[in-house]
Amino acid sequence: MTHSSLPKIALGAWAWGNDGTFGDTLTKNELRPVFDAAMESGLTLWDTAYVYGMGTSEKVMGEFLRTVPRDNYQISAKFTPQCANPKADNAVIEMYRTSANLLGTEFMDFYWIHNPVGAPRWIKELIPLAKSGKIGKIGVSNHNLAEIKQAQDILNAEGLKLSAVQNHYSIINRSSESSGILDYCKENDIIFFSYMVLEQGALTGVFNTSHPFPQDSERGQVYNPLLPKLDVLNAQIQEIADKYGVGIPQIPIAWAIAKGTLPIVGATKTKHVYDAKKAADIQLSSDDIQLIESYAEKAGLYTIRYWEKEMK
């Protein structure tokens, strides 16, 4: 389901936007080594969006991207309906241009409709942009199966193709699997990008009951109450990680790859880059995949976040 020209993992720049979700404030000087480490490691597919800090993530990313040749990286950016200019003739084209200017590119390897608010209007507005050759692959994010099929039909009627789907998918949120979205993507040659495979750090072992998430962050409010159960799950994942000679974070990432998806891993430290590279080299046994899923099911930690819905 993944494309041969793509890395096994995309690196996410959501936290580069400093929008309060993660509770961290990052500077360009702190992020530059992360970018350099990624490029050196062959992790050259970057995922961002204008809404991540209202241009902050794209601006920082763009400054770095301008220092490397255009064919050395691939960029994935998004049109977010909630940020649409109501006065624009075509809000999708307007936001695309804003992102393109910030990122310093005239071509997006992937361009997404970020969520289904107002669907299917936005996929229709994207059509002239796609026909102009400014988008490599068209994607939809946070869409359920019916919405994905609707977008596919609209694009097919115009001689275009839906090439990618991006949803929250992790060992504790498998609704894109149970709803049939993963199977649909496999059957229709659609790349499935799994985001939040580490649940914003909850599945890394870094945070626990004695070392919780920042209280003033949105993720802290969501995951801190779940830490007693997460401690148990992460201890079980640790046993599998030990078997492969890696850390806890590599296992949920390797699992997402084994499930035929392309995980997006947030990278704010060089360690995150090296962890991701290691995860891409792991081949989990089918027994271990089943074990991981059984541990996650027993934990009962299924999480739906405020911006998403149950995938049915």
Description of the structure:
With 312 residues, the chain is of the alpha/beta class. 42% of the residues lie in helices and 13% in strands. It has helices at residues 28-41, 56-65, 91-103, 121-131, 145-157, 175-178, 181-187, 218-223, 227-244, 250-258, 270-280, 286-299; strands spanning 10-12, 45-47, 74-79, 108-113, 135-141, 162-168, 191-195, 262-266. Helix 1 (28-41) runs parallel beside helix 11 (270-280) and helix 2 crosses helix 3. The longest helix is centred in the last third of the chain and has 18 residues, at 227-244. The relative contact order is 0.15.
Topology:
Layout: E1 10-12, H1 28-41, E2 45-47, H2 56-65, E3 74-79, H3 91-103, E4 108-113, H4 121-131, E5 135-141, H5 145-157, E6 162-168, H6 175-178, H7 181-187, E7 191-195, H8 218-223, H9 227-244, H10 250-258, E8 262-266, H11 270-280, H12 286-299
Parallel strand pairs: 1-2, 1-8, 2-3, 3-4, 4-5, 5-6, 6-7, 7-8
Helix pairs in contact: 1-11, 2-3, 9-12, 10-11
- Low-confidence parts lasting 5 or more residues at pLDDT below 50? none
Number of alpha- plus pi-helical segments: 12
CATH class wording = Alpha Beta
CATH superfamily: NADP-dependent oxidoreductase domain
Largest sheet: 8 strands, parallel, barrel
Can you give the helix content as a percent range? Answer: 40-55%
Helical/strand content category: alpha/beta
